[in-house]
Amino acid sequence: MNDHPITKAEKPPGFMWVVEGHPFMERQANGQTKPVTMGSDGIAISAAGSRLFYCPLASRRLFSVATGALSDRSFGSATASPPP
């Protein structure tokens, strides 16, 4: 899943952090600002251990994968499809 589209943050206007009523921005070295984005950070496993759930923190999307597929080499990153 390295660098796969489903692990990337949604970009504005799809999702934008708002802190105390103001857009949360990152100041770049050149002084310009841009919206903060973060990749896949939310991760959990089901109580039965059969599914792994993950999501980009800067997103409203939640994905899951069967844990058995994580150890099955016949599944590749090309098998996963990006969000609609």
Could you characterize the architecture of this molecule?
The chain has 84 residues and is mainly beta. The chain has one domain (5-75). The chain is built from 1 helix and 7 strands. The chain has one helix at residues 67-71; strands spanning 18-19, 22-23, 25-27, 33-35, 40-45, 51-56, 63-66. It has a 3-stranded antiparallel β-sheet. Strands 1-2 form a two-stranded antiparallel ribbon. It is elongated and about 45 Å long.
Write the layout of secondary structure elements.
Layout: E1 18-19, E2 22-23, E3 25-27, E4 33-35, E5 40-45, E6 51-56, E7 63-66, H1 67-71
Antiparallel strand pairs: 1-2, 3-4, 5-6, 6-7
Helix content class: under 10%
Give the rounded overall mean pLDDT: 78
What is the chain-wise order of helices and strands?
A: EEEEEEEH
Poorly predicted regions are none
β-strand number: 7
Summarize it:
It contains 1 helix and 7 strands. It has 84 residues and is mainly beta.
Q: Which key phrases capture this entry?
A:
three-stranded antiparallel beta sheet; 7 strands; mainly beta; 31% strand; two-stranded antiparallel sheet; single chain; 84 residues
